[in-house]
Design goal:
Organism: Flagellimonas lutaonensis
Keywords: Membrane, Signal, Transmembrane, Transmembrane helix
Strand content: 35-45%
Largest sheet: 5 strands, antiparallel
Distance between the termini: 111 Å
Helix content: 25-40%
Low-confidence stretches: 1-24, 409-427
Number of domains: 4
Radius of gyration: 41 Å
Protein name: Aerotolerance-related exported protein
Length: about 600
């Protein structure tokens, strides 16, 4: 009986061993999906697993999905009761691009010289669903914790009325922002625009959408619309780099953060710009919009003939100070007037331009007498009162105390004030035509030592003149050297202000960008500040400037833009200054 039992066990073992060998030799390569139906706002985990190691893994193209993570590879191997267990996997995290039914196509791998493929699987993508139970990923947390908003001071401004645009980034206290870079900067077409640099990023605790947030101002602009109707403000887009907390902790118990990035956009905004009213518009209105004061003054009220004085027309206040013309000064014809010198002291804040502009005239009277400077007027539109206002200056009388007498008679001017006309042929009647000569001494110059010294000195200067001439000829013949010197002088001329601002990042890059545009404006006789970098590239290429030099010029313009949002070291500023000097010299040489 016992012998029969042992025989049965032996026979069973012999029959079972081949089956185990057959199982060990069987290769398994398959695909596993985290779900076969998901919302367009959910994620899909696709894992390709095999029970034997292989080579040359080729994943499918994942049509209809974006790969946001992967492939992540995992290998496990173990022995149990003398039997080896092996597993290897490639995992991907996908997000759907749209709704529909998509197929995860075949993946392939080579195992022991043979190619194995997975079976295609279909996935249905539905509309967005609520998924509160799924743990949010780092990207999900970043999306919920960041928002960029463009705050506009006024949605329906008048033509040439100031509108401030403040770009604020709202940040949840759960994450940390490490850096950011601009993706797309608006061009502000149909606006006169002024950037107000943000020198310090101050974080303010606030409430946003009913939740506690922190806000920081990243960019500020002041716009003056130059057209009426609906004007679009293009969106500002930024890529924000953030640290997102995870559920893991380090050895000391501190929370482990994961870095990710998120692209945020302020969105397109539309202004409805109203035209200035025609009713009540003064005849001398020149486009001034705001609140202003107007004065006409002179540096002195009494003087002598042939002396000079300054007459100043000054407009001060708050408004579009750089966008209108000052009224002209009306003077009697007997007063000689020079072209005015324009003075400007204007600063721009988020509420608009403030300060003063003025024209300063130099006046020289020729005759004795009293000369009236008639009253002149200045008109502007006030958006707050929605009315036009006219300011009148007081009449000023100039008293010329000493000088020749004008025999002409006053003639009434068109404004009612007298003008003095000088008769033809009597403009210079006060100049003396006779002279009184006096003896300057008894020494005779002819034949004296000084006479012979002055006679010989030109002969002594001839060798010096020859040496100077040869030296100048040698310099003139050095064409390449002269060209390089001119280029260096040109670079120093345009970059002088940027050099003074080295070490001050914001002022340096503003001055550097202005120098680059001013250089092209001077060389090509065009206004390049209105051009895009692509247009400038085309323009320089048409002038046969080589690609390396063009790329260097464009790279400098990009650095000037990046410097407004990113930290730049003193070493980087010095390198950009040296590069700008080199690029200007190269372009000037090729042009």
């Amino acid at each position: 009986m016992r012998l029969c039992y042992l025989t049965y066990v032996l026979l069973f073992s012999l029959l079972a061993v081949p089956n185990l060998w057959a199982q060990d030799d069987e290769v398994s390569f398959q695909v596993n999906l985290s779900k076969e139906k998901l919302g367009v706002n959910e994620r899909l985990r696709v894992e390709f697993t095999m029970n034997k190691d292989g080579d040359n893994f080729v994943p499918p193209d994942f049509e209809g999905f974006n790969v946001i993570m992967g492939p992540t590879q995992q290998i496990s191997s173990s022995w149990f009761n003398g039997k080896r267990s092996f597993s290897k996997s490639y995992a991907y995290i996908l997000t759907p691009t749209k709704q529909g039914v998509f197929t995860i196509k075949q993946a392939s791998i080579e195992i022991s010289g043979k190619t194995y493929k997975t079976v295609p699987k279909k996935v249905e993508v539905t509309a967005a669903v609520d998924n509160p139970n799924a743990p949010p990923s780092a990207d999900d947390i970043a999306s919920e914790s960041l928002d960029l908003v463009a705050e506009i001071s006024k949605g329906s401004p008048y033509l040439n009325e100031a509108v401030s645009v403040v770009y604020k980034l709202y940040i949840s206290p759960n994450i940390r922002v490490t850096n950011y870079r601009p993706i797309d900067n608006p061009k502000y077409n149909n606006f006169w625009s002024q950037d107000i640099p943000v020198t310090k990023y101050n974080t303010v605790n606030t409430t946003y959408k009913g939740k506690p947030f922190r806000s920081v101002v990243l960019k500020r602009m002041v716009l003056y619309p130059q057209k009426t109707g609906k004007l679009e403000i293009e969106p500002l887009s930024l890529e924000i780099y953030v640290d997102v907390p995870t559920n893991r902790r380090d050895f000391f118990g501190g929370r482990i953060y994961k870095q990710t990035s998120k692209i945020v956009s302020a969105g397109k905004r539309v202004l409805n710009v109203k035209p200035l009213p025609e009713a009540g518009k003064p005849a001398n209105f020149s486009g001034a919009v705001g609140e202003f004061d107007f004065t006409v003054s002179t540096s002195k009220s009494s003087l002598n003939a042939s002396e000079s004085l300054q007459a100043k027309i000054e407009i001060s206040g708050k408004g579009n100070l750089k966008l209108f013309q000052l009224p002209d000064l009306e003077l009697p014809s007997a007063l000689e007037v020079y072209e005015p010198e324009f003075e400007e002291k204007v600063r721009t804040t988020t509420s608009g331009m403030e300060g003063k502009v003025a024209n300063s005239y130099t006046i020289v009277p020729s005759y004795k007498g009293k000369y009236p400077i008639p009253s002149i007027s200045f008109s502007y539109f006030n958006p707050k009162t929605e009315k036009y206002h006219i300011l009148e200056s007081e009449e000023i009388t100039l008293d010329v105390l000493q000088g020749p007498t004008d025999t002409s008679t006053p003639v009434a001017a068109s404004g009612g004030s007298p003008k003095y006309v000088v008769p033809t042929g009597k403009q210079f009647h006060f100049i003396k035509t006779s002279t009184t000569l006096t003896n300057i001494g008894q020494d005779i110059f002819l034949g004296s030592t000084r006479f012979y010294l002055f006679l010989i000195s030109p002969l002594l200067l001839i060798p010096i003149a020859i040496l100077v001439f040869k030296r100048r000829e040698a310099i003139a013949s050095d064409v390449e050297g002269n060209r390089l010197k001119r280029a260096d002088r040109l670079a120093k001329k345009f970059l002088s202000k940027a050099r003074k601002e080295l070490g001050n990042k914001d002022n340096f890059y503003v001055a550097l960008e202005k120098a680059l545009h001013n250089y092209l404006k001077a060389k090509l006789k065009i206004e390049t500040s209105e051009f895009s970098k692509e247009k400038i590239t085309t323009l320089l290429a048409e002038k046969n400037v080589d690609d390396d030099t063009i790329n260097g010029f464009i790279a400098l313009l990009k650095n000037c833009e990046m410097a407004r949002y990113s930290p730049f070291s003193d070493v980087q500023m010095q390198q950009d200054y040296d590069k700008a000097s080199e690029v200007i010299s190269k372009i000037d040489k090729q042009l």
